């Protein structure tokens, strides 16, 4: 049953076998393993290393294995060491001696490097699709909320008024960069390790360009040692996944705050909330909390693989088998989080009156009041001081800047005229900010049309 029994005189200790085996998790890429083998065998035949008949028998056998596993007719036998051993053993069982030629000119080292790359490349593509869905939901909500005023915060203290479209737009930029980062990783990872053998290539006249092309790679990798020892692309991928989770987690944190009784900026849909077993009134933002919580787990995968790789001499070492479970877990976690978060986001109800009321209080127009003075010839530093003292005055009187009389304004600076009220109105504070990237409506409309183009080309 083993691929390497010949040199051994004793059975492997059962605990050693269990500790060493990877089939419980590497069966996840049985399809990719078989696809890689089909490409390999096709090339071996082209190069005259296998006959046409051998090739056909092997490919037919491999396709049969793949279909049978998919249809549940063939159960992956976990007593084998890994998925590679299982497929090869099953092939030999099905087609006899021809099956024993499958592994010609190949090692499990280049085989596993290939399988993992193929699997990751596919998952990465699915991740991009999920990001497109999230971006589309953000885009729709942005278009609907160009006039939905809300406070913008720094230090979680009210700072200046913005719109909900502008706030959501910040996340659009983050998730768009995440999308772009994923595309960027593919450019570097998309080289085929197959044909690198255990570490030093092979003596067979393999056509590595042919297998690379058959499997959709840009070309073959250029150093056989690097090919079997490189896990950079997984580290890059886990890094990209960690950044996606960091963005989702920040957004989740805001949703949790916005959903709190103190803020009441939003109402989460019942379908995306949970209750309490004891407190009947509760409607909790568990999805957002879980997304925030799972972020640590994905960071853990990244740090784990970086640490596994840091001391490994060239070329392949068994330590690298540890790349699988943590990558699979990170992929499944991020896919789940993206899908759920997008569903939750698309069903959120924004409490517009509450957002607007909150945008108004807390002196969010103080900067604009200072700018008014600057526009009337007062130096900015002096204007800052004057408005600061007015804010203090308002706090003592429990009132707002826009509620002061013109006399009260003039008492601190004779420069103030009746147009101050318009200058510091909520609408003006937002709408005057129209440089590209700012919350003003026309600036936002320009950005939204740029986004529209981006989305159409993803
Ligand atoms: N399960 C192994 C891994 O994931 C496959 C490669 C094994 N190669 C070897 N020479 N033992 O890395």
From TrEMBL:
<dbReference type="InterPro" id="IPR020557">
    <property type="entry name" value="Fumarate_lyase_CS"/>
</dbReference>
<dbReference type="InterPro" id="IPR000362">
    <property type="entry name" value="Fumarate_lyase_fam"/>
</dbReference>
<dbReference type="InterPro" id="IPR008948">
    <property type="entry name" value="L-Aspartase-like"/>
</dbReference>
<comment type="similarity">
    <text>Belongs to the lyase 1 family. Argininosuccinate lyase subfamily.</text>
</comment>
<dbReference type="InterPro" id="IPR024083">
    <property type="entry name" value="Fumarase/histidase_N"/>
</dbReference>
<dbReference type="InterPro" id="IPR022761">
    <property type="entry name" value="Fumarate_lyase_N"/>
</dbReference>
<dbReference type="InterPro" id="IPR009049">
    <property type="entry name" value="Argininosuccinate_lyase"/>
</dbReference>
<dbReference type="Pfam" id="PF00206">
    <property type="entry name" value="Lyase_1"/>
</dbReference>
<keyword id="KW-0963">Cytoplasm</keyword>
<dbReference type="GO" id="GO:0004056">
    <property type="term" value="F:argininosuccinate lyase activity"/>
</dbReference>
<keyword id="KW-0456">Lyase</keyword>
<dbReference type="GO" id="GO:0042450">
    <property type="term" value="P:L-arginine biosynthetic process via ornithine"/>
</dbReference>
<dbReference type="Pfam" id="PF14698">
    <property type="entry name" value="ASL_C2"/>
</dbReference>
<protein>
    <recommendedName>
        <fullName>Argininosuccinate lyase</fullName>
        <ecNumber>4.3.2.1</ecNumber>
    </recommendedName>
</protein>
<keyword id="KW-0055">Arginine biosynthesis</keyword>
<comment type="pathway">
    <text>Amino-acid biosynthesis; L-arginine biosynthesis; L-arginine from L-ornithine and carbamoyl phosphate: step 3/3.</text>
</comment>
<dbReference type="InterPro" id="IPR029419">
    <property type="entry name" value="Arg_succ_lyase_C"/>
</dbReference>
<keyword id="KW-0028">Amino-acid biosynthesis</keyword>
<dbReference type="GO" id="GO:0005829">
    <property type="term" value="C:cytosol"/>
</dbReference>
